[in-house]
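so im writing up the methods section and need the Pantothenate kinase record in one place, dumping it here so i stop losing it
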Amino acid sequence: MDATPSSNEQLSRYISFTRQSWEKLRDNMPLTLSETRLRALQGLNEHVSLQETTQIYLPLSRLLSLYVAATQNLHKATDTFLETTSARVPYIIGIAGSVAVGKSTTARLLQALLAEWPSHPRVDLVTTDGFLYPKHTLEARGLMSRKGFPESYDLRHLLQFLIEVKSGRPTVTAPVYSHLTYDIVANEVQYIQQPDILIIEGLNVLQTSRMRSGKTARLFVSDFFDFSIYVDAEEKDIERWYIERFLTLRETAFRNPTSYFHRHASLSIEGAIEVARGLWQQINAPNLRENIQPTRERAHLILKKGPDHRVQEVRLRKL
Ligand SMILES: Nc1ncnc2c1ncn2[C@@H]1O[C@H](COP(=O)(O)OP(=O)(O)O)[C@@H](O)[C@H]1O
Ligand SMILES: CC(C)(COP(=O)(O)O)[C@@H](O)C(=O)NCCC(=O)O
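--- predicted struct ---
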C-alpha cells in the first residue's frame, strides 16, 4: 500500500481562505501603517497594487509578526529555565516557488512590511542564487542548461551558511549572484549580522534533495526555517509572466553590453518570445514540475495567485 499522502490529503492539513475571507481577518488586527507609509512602500514595489499590499500582504506580515514574537518568547523561556543568556538568533522565513512566479517581489514586500513592526525592525533578505556554482563550474560539469536544478547549487555551502546564522554568529557572509552576468560575482559577499528576521528566497528552499555524491542529505535547508511560504500559480500564467519579463529585460538590462543576454537585445519581439519560451520549456518548466511543485505541501503557507498576480487563495497549515 502506498503510504505517501495524496495531494488532497496533504492540502487538507491546511485552513483555506478565499481572498474575501483572508481580507476580513484584517478587522481583527491593529494595522498601524499610515496611508503615507504604505504609499512609500508602494514605491519599492511598484508592481504590487496598494490594494493587494493592504488586503493580502499586510495581514500576512501581522501573522508573521505574531509568530516571531511567540518564538522570541520561547527563547526567553528557555533562558529563564536554564539561567542563560543565549545569542540573538534570527527568525528565518523561507520563500519558495517557480522562476518568475513573483518570489523576489513577495520577499522584498514582506521584508519592507515586517521591518515596520517595532519588535523586529531588522529584516535581511538572501536569495539562494548566490549559492549556485559559478558559471565556469556549471560549464565544466555540463550543467548550464540545468541552472536552478538541485545539482546546480552548492548545497553544502548553503547549509553551512544556515548553520552559522542559526548558531548566533555575529557576522556571516553569503555569496552574491548577478542576473546581468548570469554568474556569481567574484570578490563580493553579503554580510548578515544577526538581523531579527532573515528571509531566504529561492526555487530550492523546500527541497529534500540529494548531495552530489548521491547520498541523501542529513540536513535540509528547511530544517532551519521557522516559517515557510510557497508562492503558487498555474503553470501557463507563470510561463506568460516569464516571457513578459524577458521582453521587458530585452528593452532594459539586455541593452547593457556586459549582460549575458546582450545578444538578445537586438531580437525582434517574435524572436525574443521564441528564445524566452525555449528557456522556459527546456529549463524552468521541467524544474518546476520535477523539483519545485512537489515541495509545495511542505510549506506552512501557500499563496495561490490568479492570472493577474492577485492572490486568490491563502492556505495556512494547521500547526
Ligand atoms: N504581486 C505582483 N503583482 C504584479 N506583478 C508582479 C507581482 N509579483 C511579481 N510580479 C511580476 O512578475 C514577474 C516575476 O516576478 P519576480 O518577483 O521577479 O519573480 P521570481 O523572483 O519568482 O523569479 C516580474 O516581472 C514582476 O514584476
Ligand atoms: C538564477 C535562477 C536559477 C533562480 O535562482 P534562485 O534565486 O531561485 O535560487 C533562475 O533565475 C535562472 O537563471 N534559471 C535558468 C534559466 C533562465 O535563464 O531562465
